[in-house]
Structure formats: C-alpha cells, structure tokens
From TrEMBL:
Membrane topology of this protein: Multi-pass membrane protein
Compartment(s): Cell membrane; Membrane
The protein's name in its UniProt record: Probable membrane transporter protein
Pfam families associated with the record: TauE
Coiled coil: none
Entry annotated with the keyword Transmembrane: yes
Annotated keywords: Cell membrane, Membrane, Transmembrane, Transmembrane helix
Parts of the chain that traverse the membrane: 72-94, 100-120, 202-225, 232-250, 262-281
Organism: Arsenicicoccus piscis
Sequence similarity: Belongs to the 4-toluene sulfonate uptake permease (TSUP) (TC 2.A.102) family.
Domain of life: Bacteria
InterPro entries reported for this sequence: TM_pro_TauE-like (IPR002781), TSUP/Inactive_protease-like (IPR051598)
Length: 304
C-alpha cells in the first residue's frame, strides 16, 4: 500500500511538471518503476497505460485554458502514434542504448538554445503567426513517438524543444499541444504493448496509482502554463532539457565522470538554471512596467 501511495505522489508530481513544462511524466515514472526492478517493457507499458488517462485530462484542461493549437496536434499526433505503436511492438528486441547518447546531444543543443533565447530575448514575434509545416511536424512526431515507446518517455523532451526552437508557437501553446497530442501516442503505445506483451505485461495497480496522481495535477498544471509569463516558462523548459540530457550523457558510456564531479555538474547547472529563470522574471516585469508606462503616456496625450 505504501508503494502505491508513493507511486500516486510520483504521478502527481510528474504530471504537474509535464503539464506545465511539456515533459517529464514518462521519464520520471518509468525511472521509478525501473528502480524497483520492473523490466523495461513492462515499465513503459504501465506508464503508457496510465498516460492514456492523464493525457486526456491534461489535454482537456489545456483546451479549456486556450493552450492548444489543434492543427499542431493533428500534424504531430498521428505520426507520433504510428511511431509509438512501432516502438512498443518491437521493444522486446530493439535497444535504444546506443541511440540515447546521440539523441541526448541533439536535445542538449536544443535545450541550450531555448534556455539562452528565452532568458535573454524572450519571444520573437516575427515568426509567431507563421504555420508549422507538416513536413517538419510529421517526421518529428514519428521519431518522438518511437523514442517515447522504446525509452519509456521522450515525447515531451523531443517534441517540446524542437517546436519551441522554431519560434512559431508561443510556449504555452507548444506545451498544451504536445500534452494533448500525447494522448494519441499513449493510446497507440498501449495497443502496441498489448500486441507484443499481452495484458500480463502491464502492472495494473501501479498504472492506477500513477493515473490517480496525474489526474489530480492535470488542471493545476494547465492553469500554471496559462498564467506563467512565456519568457519565464521558456527559460524553465530550457533548463529542464539541459539538466535532463546532461544527466543522460553522464550515465552513458561516452564519458566517465566520478560521482562527486557529476554532483558538482548538476549543482552548477541548477544554479545557472535558477539564475536564468530569475533574470527572465526580472526582465519580464521590467517589460510589463515599461509597456504600462507607455500606455499611460499615450492615454494622457490623447486626453490632452
């Protein structure tokens, strides 16, 4: 019972992060299941089954708060579902251990770009109203869906930074659209695991506990992403991407880092991340104050 309560709390925390930053539910939940000895296929199958409910609730909440671009959902979600079904079906003999460090390098570069861009310049409005093309979203969805199913998570870490980096969609709509389209990915992955593993491959009590926690957090996360300043939200997402993928690279066989050194690296990233978010918040407040002063001056001049 204690383990199920812990899983519910993990589901709540993971969905709170995922719903407000567009990533981390699958990665967090799968990591915990692997830590208690669950095999990778069963862990991913269990998390994706829970995600059918959490992503549906999250998508509904984001839609109610106006955070969803349905064209993006359709263009990335359907290819994502195809990739997820393929990844889930073949997980028993496919390994992503070799590909994971390479993908982490790509994501790390994107994360640094997003972090620097939103910290120092915020959103550029030059491209915000330009549509995201299908030829960009379809391959992205296919790759992200496959990685998500085979790795137990990855839809958000792959999809969110790529769309954020395009500068064509404001952060809250990137996160809302990614979270909503993840419903299709979770559903397709669950069907794939059902084909590959059968119903016995899913740990139902664990899936239920993760689902309960996620359902509680979904509306609050959607509210947060609606009201957080885009510049601050972008900096927060960028820092999370950097920290997550540096951690993956340190744990891979590409580089060898001692435990004290890795802890120092994590601490350094956390300090820089916190400073970036604080700076973004300060600049946002300065921008709001400047806009308010300009509006007041214009109003006074028109009255005069």
């Amino acid at each position: 019972m204690r383990q199920l309560i812990l899983l519910a709390l993990v589901g709540l925390g993971a969905q709170l992060v995922d719903g407000s930053l567009g990533m981390a539910y699958g990665v967090t939940s799968t990591t915990l299941l692997l830590a208690v000895g669950t095999n990778p296929a069963a862990a991913s199958a269990t998390v994706h089954l829970a995600e059918i409910g959490t992503t549906a609730a999250s998508g509904l909440a984001h839609w109610r708060f106006g955070n969803v671009d349905w064209r993006v959902v359709a263009r990335i979600g359907v290819p994502g579902a195809i990739g997820a079904f393929a990844g889930a079906t073949f997980l028993s003999w496919l390994s992503t251990e070799t590909a994971a460090p390479i993908m982490s390098l790509v994501l790390l570069a994107l994360g640094l770009y997003v972090l620097i861009r939103f910290t120092f310049s915020g959103i550029s409005t030059a491209h915000l109203h330009k549509p995201l093309r299908r030829r960009f979203l379809s391959p992205l969805g296919l790759v992200a869906g496959f990685i998500d199913a085979t790795g137990g998570g990855g839809w958000g870490p792959v999809g969110t930074p790529a769309i954020l980096a395009s500068g064509r969609l404001e952060p809250r709509k990137v996160i809302g659209s990614i979270d909503t389209s993840e419903f299709l990915v979770a559903l397709a992955a669950s069907l794939g695991f059902l084909v590959g593993l059968g119903s016995g491959g899913v740990i139902l009590p664990a899936a239920a506990a993760l689902l309960v926690g996620g359902l509680i957090a979904a509306p609050l996360a959607a509210w947060l992403v609606r009201h957080l300043p885009p510049r601050v939200l972008g900096a927060a997402v960028g820092g999370l991407i950097v920290l997550t993928n540096v951690r993956t690279l340190i744990r891979s066989d590409i580089i060898t880092v001692s435990s004290p050194a890795s802890n120092a690296i994590y601490l350094g990233i956390a300090v820089v991340w916190a400073a970036a978010v604080a700076y973004s918040l300060r600049e946002h407040r300065r921008s709001v104050s400047s806009s308010a002063a300009t509006s007041s001056a214009l109003a006074d001049s028109s009255v005069g």
